[in-house]
Amino acid sequence: MSKQLQFKLVLLGESAVGKSSLVLRFVKDQFDDYRESTIGAAFLTQTVSLEDGTSVKFEIWDTAGQERYKSLAPMYYRSAACAICVYDITQSASLEKAKSWIRELQRQADPSIVIALCGNKADLAARRQVSQEEAQKFAEEEGLMWCETSAKTGEGVNDIFDRIAHKLPQVA
Ligand code: GDP
Q1: Ligand 1 midpoint to CA 19 (Å)
Q2: Does the beta carbon of 162 lie inside 6 Å of ligand 1?
Q3: What interface predicted TM-score (ipTM) does this complex get?
Q4: Mean pLDDT of 97-104
């Protein structure tokens, strides 16, 4: 019988960087320009199938605006197997915020947690404030996965979940 694995994944990052939109794109392949910030869903699930038949089910926790209440965070990322720390490539302050989440995870989360740094809104490259080189260099130094995505066009979205799905069985 093929293996079925399940992992908790959390999204962290400044408000409005596109966390809920990334989840909506990955789970439902939808995008909504006018959606209220934060859908408030407790969690959604999505499964990725690996080449060897293993299925990796993500239990995805969206912060639902709780990033504003920092004290709730440890409860939220405790027991997470993976985290995507999202910034908006058009807002350099959002990269600093993502870095501070990464530092917090490195201090407080399970040491085997898989962390991805994700620059969202890649479709707005004309307004870019964060260079690919800068973000990639930081990710490399910290041993993190890095990617750019657009929840709007779908660019890079399946790819990052796929990379995480392949990495998790190796560290779990
Ligand atoms: P959250 O607060 O981090 O969950 O952010 P949301 O998912 O609510 O997104 C905030 C705003 O950014 C919304 O108006 C989205 O439509 C928009 N947005 C999210 N992702 C993208 C993207 O990849 N490209 C563009 N152009 N807008 C995006």
Answers
A1: 7
A2: no
A3: 0.99
A4: 95
Residue 129 pLDDT: 98
| Strand partners of residue 6 | 57
For residue 62, give the ligand 1 atom closest to its CA. Answer: 4
Strands (E), 97-139: 114-120
Calpha distance 110→108 (Å, rounded): 7
Amino acid at 151: A
Hey, CA dihedral for 118, 47, 82, 66, is it positive or negative? positive
Structure tokens at 45: 């699930």
Determine the distance separating the centroid of ligand 1 and the alpha carbon of 155, expressed in angstroms: 14
In sequence order, the 6+-apart residues with CB closer than 8 A to the CB of 36 are none
Return the H-helix or E-strand segment holding 69: none
Could you tell me if the CB of 33 is within 6 A of ligand 1?
yes
Distances (CA, A) of 159 to 55, 145, 148, 155: 16, 11, 10, 8
| Spatial contact of 162 and 46, defined as CB atoms under 8 Å apart | no
| Model confidence, pTM | 0.93
Instruction: Answer yes or no: is pLDDT of 140 > 70.
Output: yes
21 lines ligand 1 (CB under 6 A): yes
Radius of gyration of the chain (CA): 15
pLDDT tens for each residue of 146-172: 999 999 999 999 999 999 999 998 887
